[in-house]
């Protein structure tokens, strides 16, 4: 039986472990051919629509970015009937417009991660699972229609949002050196985070419409007005909490 449609799936990042406004919540945790997702998927209603929520790092934030089963997360949401996925990603800001507490909807990305399972195209040791190798187009890594819907919803809900920007995905879990951030700036990155990839690429391979809503938690190393600033988890969480205060209104409108 085809699963009932989910109008929007939301994947929450650091500091975003639940969607308090979800109502009539049903909880599911399907095991996929790629294994189990990071935690339970909460499905409920929001603004009259069916919305699913999954905490990317697990609800107790126990999974580091390089050990998240990105494939299982996306496949589980898809199996439950989701076609559109909005990823919430906590990030550091590199360029001027992306200071702490800014919300942004990037339109490009650069992948600096390594050693992560980053595709669904795979043949196992016994030669199973091959099939056709898919070289998906990824020139525009985020779904234009979903990005436009996010930006329109932000405007309608009167939530400030930067339209565009380049997300650089780093391996983590350590933060970056100042030289690494200086290089990323030269490469054209505006934002830096640890979970944007392989999630976005896998979503494209799976045929999902996927966009990123980045929440700037801190200036990336050496990028802010105080080049000697030390980034603490408490600062990150405080900024995320402040920046996401308007998120419920935005999601409801979306
Ligand atoms: N770098 C990488 N990932 C992050 C940062 C950062 O400065 N802040 C929040 N996530």
TrEMBL record:
One of its GO terms (cellular component) is cytosol. It holds the Pfam family PNP_UDP_1. Phosphate binds at residues 14, 56-57, 195. The record marks 176, 233 as: Important for substrate specificity. Its EC number is 2.4.2.1. It catalyses: a purine D-ribonucleoside + phosphate = a purine nucleobase + alpha-D-ribose 1-phosphate. One of its GO terms (molecular function) is S-methyl-5-thioadenosine phosphorylase activity. Residues 8-254 form the Nucleoside phosphorylase domain. SUPFAM superfamilies: Purine and uridine phosphorylases. PROSITE patterns: PNP_MTAP_2. One of its GO terms (biological process) is L-methionine salvage from methylthioadenosine. Substrate binds at residues 194, 218-220. The keyword Iron-sulfur does not apply. It is an enzyme of class 2 (transferase). It comes from the Bacteria. Keywords: Glycosyltransferase, Purine salvage, Transferase. InterPro entries: MTAP, Nucleoside_phosphorylase_d, Nucleoside_phosphorylase_sf, Purine_phosphorylase-2_CS. Pathway: Purine metabolism; purine nucleoside salvage. NCBIfam families: PRK09136.1 (NF006599). Although this enzyme belongs to the family of MTA phosphorylases based on sequence homology, it has been shown that conserved amino acid substitutions in the substrate binding pocket convert the substrate specificity of this enzyme from 6-aminopurines to 6-oxopurines. Purine nucleoside phosphorylase which is highly specific for 6-oxopurine nucleosides. Cleaves guanosine or inosine to respective bases and sugar-1-phosphate molecules. Involved in purine salvage. Homohexamer. Dimer of a homotrimer. Belongs to the PNP/MTAP phosphorylase family. MTAP subfamily. This is Probable 6-oxopurine nucleoside phosphorylase. It comes from Lysobacter silvisoli.
């Amino acid at each position: 039986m085809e699963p009932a449609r989910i109008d929007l799936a939301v994947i929450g990042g650091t500091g975003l472990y639940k969607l308090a406004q979800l109502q009539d919540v049903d909880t599911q945790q399907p095991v996929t051919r790629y294994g189990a997702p990071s935690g339970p998927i909460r499905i409920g209603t929001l603004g009259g629509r069916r919305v699913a929520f999954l905490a990317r790092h697990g609800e107790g934030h126990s999974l580091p970015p390089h050990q998240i089963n990105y494939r299982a997360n996306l496949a589980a949401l898809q199996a439950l009937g989701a076609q559109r996925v909005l990823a919430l990603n906590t990030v550091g800001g590199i360029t001027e417009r992306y200071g702490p507490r800014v919300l942004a909807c990037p339109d490009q990305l650069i992948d600096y991660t390594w050693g992560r399972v980053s595709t669904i195209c795979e043949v196992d040791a016994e030669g199973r699972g091959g099939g056709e190798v898919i070289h998906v187009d990824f020139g525009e890594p985020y779904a234009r229609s979903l990005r436009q819907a996010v930006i329109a919803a932000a405007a309608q809900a009167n939530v400030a949002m930067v339209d565009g920007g380049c997300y650089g995905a780093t391996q983590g879990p350590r933060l970056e050196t100042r030289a690494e951030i200086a290089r990323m700036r030269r490469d054209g990155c505006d934002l830096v985070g640890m979970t944007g990839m392989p999630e976005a690429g896998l979503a494209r391979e799976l045929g999902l419409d996927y966009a990123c809503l980045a929440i700037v938690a801190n200036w990336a190393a050496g990028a802010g007005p105080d080049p000697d600033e030390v980034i603490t988890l408490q600062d990150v969480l405080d900024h995320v909490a402040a920046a996401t205060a308007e998120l419920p209104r935005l999601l409801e409108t979306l």
